[in-house]
Amino acid sequence: MGKRTLRVLATGALGFGLLAAGLSSNVSAKDNLVFSVGVTQDIDSLNVSVGYLVMDFEIWNLTLPSLTDMAAEDFSILPSMAESWTGSEDGLTWTYKLRSDMKWSDGEPMTADDVVYTITRAVEEGWVNHTATLANITATVIDARTVEVVSAVPDPKLPGLGVYILPKHIYEKISTEDLPNYPADDNVSGGSFQIVERKEGEFIRLARNPNWWGKEPKIDEVIFRLYETAEAQFNALKAGDLDAIDDVPVKIFTSVAAGEVENLIGVAGNQGSFSNIAINTSCATGIGNGHVALKDPKVRQAINWAIDRQLLVDKLLNGFGAPAMSIVPSANPAFDIKIDAAEAYSYDPAKANALLDEAGWKDSNSDGVRDKDGTELKLRYFDRSTSGAGDTTPFITGWLKDVGIATDVKTLDEDSLIAEQSKSDFDLYTWGWTPYVDPDNMLSYFTTSQVPTDPEVGGYNDGNWCNEEYDALYVKQNAELDPVKRAELIQQMHRVFYDEAPYAALYKYDNLQAFRSDRWQNFTRQPSNVGPVLFTNTSPVYRDLEPAGSGGISGGTNTMVIVIVALAVAGGIVVAFASRRKKSADDRQ
Amino acid sequence: MSESTGTTFRAMTWARRRTALSRVWRELRHDRPGFIGLLLLSGFGLFALSAPLIADRSSLLVASGRNNPDLAAPSIKFLLGTDEIGRDVLAQLVWGSRVSLFIGLFATVVAVVIGSVVGLAAGYTKGKVSAVLLAIDDFFLVVPFLPLAIVLAVVLGRSPVTLSIVIGVTSWAGSARLIRAQVLTLSERAYVERARALGASSWHVIVRHVLPGVAPLIIANATLIVPSAILTESTLSFLGFGDRLSPSWGKLLEGAQSSGSITLNAWWYYLPPGLCIIGIVLAFTLLGRSLERIFDPRLRGR
Amino acid sequence: MSRRYLIKKVIGAFLTLSAVVVFNFFLFRIVDRDPLAKYRGRSKLTIEQRETMIRRMGLEGSKWDQFTVYIKSVLRLDFGRSFDSTQPVLGEITARLPATLFLVGVSTLLTICVGLYIGTKAGWRRGSRFDRTSTSATMVLYSTPEFFFGMLLLAFIAGRTGWFPTGGLRDVGADYGFVGNLIDRMHHLVLPTVTLTLGYLGSYALIMRTSMIETLGEDYLVTARAKGLRDSEVMSRHAVPNALLPSVSLIAISFGFVIGGAITTETVFSYPGLGLATANAISNNDLPMLQALFLLASAAVILFNFIADLVYGLLDPRVRRTE
After folding, report:
1. pTM beyond 0.90, yes or no
2. Residue A557 near residue A21, CB atoms below 8 Å
3. Prediction ipTM score
4. Which of A81, A132, A185, A246 is least enclosed, having the fewest CB within 10 Å?
5. Total number of domains in chain C
6. Which of A32, A180, A563 comes nearest C39 by C-beta?
């Protein structure tokens, strides 16, 4: 290659760079207000009848309407599709009056038909996210703007009815057969935003829904971008590619919360999320096939005493959480178990050993593992391969070993884990929950009716635990309209659950989120002061967010300049390299 | 053959082997890269052996960081600081060297055994058997290594032993090919043909004449399989498909990444395992290439 | 290149590919994974629904029936539905293919060019300072796991300076026009490409250096140099082409490693290509997806090897003569 050719090439590269510079100046001229959120969990399914991850709920909160909404501050019931409602004397029948100006994003009117269609079909087909709320409910159309809801039993949740309502004109075309595989890519929205673009495994982009009839959001677009590692995601936030992230690694979060990172603020929000180990108690009415030892409450209690919850909170959560003694039934901490510190499970291996001895499990053959009647106390421990809530398994297996319980750990993906749970063929398994606001759903999961009896159908009761006292209390609280009395009943249920120990509840954990405070303000938390900003119950933040101060949001330009510099440098290196090579070749002649 | 001649014969063989060995040693000492590799390797070997002296096994337990600060910088108490749950990084590094070395070496044994058997058989047999063996070899040579290893790890499980088998099963193809080529050249040599003409059985020819001939090559080749096995193990662990309960270097790097240690400048957590992987791979590679040069005169120039 | 050589290579590639297809079938039947796990406990499927799904997944009847169903679907490029997303696998793969082709393509090209250049130069001037420095450097590069490079680049270049994005394929939601978008893609591609290139540069350079040294030892080159042919001529006319030959097939084989490298690199940089899809499919035990990805990766390597064989056949006079 002659020197002249090289010069021509270099000039060409420079021209290309200038062209790029010209283009990049257009880039920053855009004034679309885009809020970019980094996430490490992809959408499971946009289909309301099958999806179950918090990411799915976030999108539904933005795109699907509901009869009533919940206040950001305290979850109190707010009008939404229904602008008003009246209840009958007995509290069983509620009549909702709908707004008159509602349309789906495709222009179709949104009416009582959509509401009743969704409720009826969800009950018939047993949609996973609707069933518990709608268990006793029937809905009928009175007229286009009026829906009547009848509950078979007094329901303390009513008149709040937050289930997602779907567009009838889209879903009536989808048969029961096809629904489980329906990707819900119709993009017809009835919420404040609508999906405009989705690349699975990459991002989902939502723009303001022009037909939205509620509070007008100030931002034009929300983008959720998927990152593989939490560290890459944090670096993207720091570099300004993102405006908000969920799932900040706990040690990094500590430095953000301490104000050590410029322009960033951290929010540790709690909405009742907790981690647990389910203990298969093999209830007689179910198909549970757990280790025989686990049928004895003493052994289950021993497992609970063997675990150092405070250490887990300190080490895995860096203190952003608290030990849990029972299920956490609600995002509202008022419903948490109330128990004396002296009584609460703490790290007490001696007590665990004593309970196991008492239950007759002793290490008779001195192999380090307890046994009874020739059966070793070795438990099948199913572990979850992806969990944002800390890797508790090595800790717990270690502590169980200390008290003479051997474990055989098998790591499974979430779907397989649920499948195993439906078969109830396990001893211990790692799981975690984020409860709804009303405690009813979470409490219902541990009633006998939720014990899996058919692997094809499954059930929520992952402890395979049945207790008549608990069942009776559950029915009572579900029909108790006096909030104080209901809270008391729930405390009694906690007590039964605590003593029977079908779970080793581990800890409540905070959602660790970080935001660009130099760009945005009004980070609404739900509930106020303690809750998170992203992934809340009804996602009010997207309607409240506004740009910080008057400074616009820049970006793009700087990076483009870098590309140009990089190209120029690369060009320079090529030229230098090539001419040097030529020279050295000449030298050697 | 009387007993006394048998002994002398054996003694002679040993003497011959001793001279060969000392020749290798002499040449290795003068081959700088190889010698550096050997020194590095001895260093790592000592490091792995000294694990119980440096840290108690119990400091690997997750709960061992109970009273320690998390992500603490190096100090007298913790020469390489602590990880995100307060465990001694040095303890994990030194015990991790055993896991990484075990997997590297055991996987190599698996690969070399399969590779030698297939290579010898393919080189020594003719016709259909050889063709089939070559086709199998082709298959394993071509199938993308990491995806296959990952898939097999999913199927077989994740303990260090199964991981080694997985890695071994996926990395023998190259050596089988090499050994076959060597066998083919050897078979044409006069002494092998003579033995065959004298009516020696195939087994005898292989064990007595061919195997000693290819042994040096197998050793050199094995030395080069170890580093790639170690790299594969670290990659599998890093991707989260390794054994979660044994502290390999890859696992350590995975922990460093997921806890955000790079962003937090906790160099004592992410640099040591990274450098150890580079170091041990470098050591084996230098030594392996050097042995190749020594055993295979064709490569003298390298 | 004789026709016989060509036919032999075509048949060879085809046989290997078929072996992969068969192997694939059995490999994934061993895994104990509930194909309907996605639906279990979440929606009440009727018995008919379940049976339909099992049939559609080709999991019905004897192993032999399943095998024929499998072969037929593979021939139609129908890989079933992903266990995880419940959407057709083929669509998911084609959507992600361009990103990976781009990444692997660019870095393979770079690796070959830079690697061969360094290897040639080092081999040509064996023992020189360039040789010593470059060989040490390439040895270290060769020994470094590419994800370690990636981690360091991500934190120190992308995280600290902000010069490059920390992940992804593009600025989501931005439209810079055709050229602008292209530059944007390239901008996102820089760090993953550098990672992948550095990761495999070492082995290519070392292969080429060895090959070069061997070639230079051949009598005819020694003679050519002794006869006073200009060095640059000897190098470009004789040494390099001859040294390239053995490198070609070795490089084709190491292409399989580059595919493995794409898995880790894409993971580190959240680059949504097939490598990342592979990593995700594994953590989700998404067998149909894995099966298809594995087949595709194998096919790519087989194709690459086949091309290498052809190049070899075209370049090497011995192949032309004897085969």
Report:
1. no
2. no
3. 0.82
4. A185
5. 1
6. A180
